[in-house]
Design brief:
With 378 residues, the protein is of the alpha+beta class. Helix content is 37%, strand content 17%. The protein has two domains: 173 residues, Immunoglobulin-like (Sandwich), CATH 2.60.40.420; 131 residues, Sandwich (Immunoglobulin-like). The chain contains ten helices and twelve strands. The strands form three sheets. Strands 3-2-1-5-8 form a five-stranded mixed sheet. The protein has a five-stranded mixed sheet with strand order 4-10-9-6-7. A hairpin with a 3-residue loop joins strand 6 and strand 7. The N and C termini lie far apart (66 Å). Bound molecules: copper (II) ion.
Amino acid sequence: MKSLRTALGTLVLALLTAGCSLEGDYPQSSVAPTSDFALMIHELYADIFWWTLLILAVVWVVLAYILIRFRARPDSPVPKQIHGHMGLEIGWTIGPALIVVAISIPTIQAVFATQQGDPEGSLVVDVIGHQYWWEFRYPDSGLITANEVHIPVDRPVSFRISSDDVIHSFWVPMLGGKRDANPMRIRPEGEDPKYNWIHLTANETGTFWGQCAEFCGDSHSLMGFRVVVEDEAGFQAWQADLATPVAAPATAAADPAQDTTTADAAPAPAQVAQVDPLVEQGREIFHQQTCIACHAIAGTNAMGEIAPNLTLFGRRSSLAAGWLENTPENLQAWIKAPQDIKPGALMPGVAVAGGNWPATNLTDDQVEAIAAYLYSLR
Ligand SMILES: [Cu+2]
């Protein structure tokens, strides 16, 4: 009786926790496909799941029958021994082998289908893994961004995946993946670069979360990114904005609260005549600091190529490769002490050296101004 109660309690607990995990917003769900690629894998998974469940049900019914029908009764004789029964031995070897073959056929088909070449007219996006952030390049337009990549809905996209240091793995659970990012982009003279590819067509707009899925160092688990799937017009507008040097004209930092409400709806940069002195001050400091040795902002003297490109940075929803919400406060904390937020981050802080550059020794006021400036890049 006691064990029955324990068993029931465990079952209720299991159902409760399972129930909880089905509610709410799970941006890294791998059972909510939003692209042809993800759907193909999901269908394969679901098919195998239901067949497995059917097999399980058959096994349980047979097991229950045997347990009850042949249970030991008082004075029952020793049952007939069937050790080495030829028919049974062959049956339960061939049965599972057939099941494995049945599973492998659609699996191998899916493996080949997801390895198909570059579909005609697809948008190629270079995905380059770095410790611990993601770079995205559009070879057609020459545009570069980081940690938040935009793609159009209903149009084939080919992610060309590689790495600049160690092995990473590109994974956007709802869109598809995962594929290793290998450091084979830059090859010795005479050898071709090697890439892994993911070809997919997103069929829903929205922001999808991605994550590095291959252990790559201290902050591997903090190496996320976002994929923003937009309609064609929104995507074109975003690309046009990225191509226009946004830092050159004095863009006023409007009220941040107001900015967040309009950021998604109105992609055009706010052309406000009024100038925020804090932003101007931050602009001046940033462009005189070591920041520009590593970071680039289109149209300015910041042309570093070894750190996330900060063009339109203020529009990103996340900071530090998908790890923090992009707010002026978080931005200040990051500029002050990146390693406190991401162990091993290759960027110097106010008091600690990083990425082979000495500590910046910036004052709190300077950091606040730089944060205001970066946040105004929208
Ligand atoms: Cu990683």
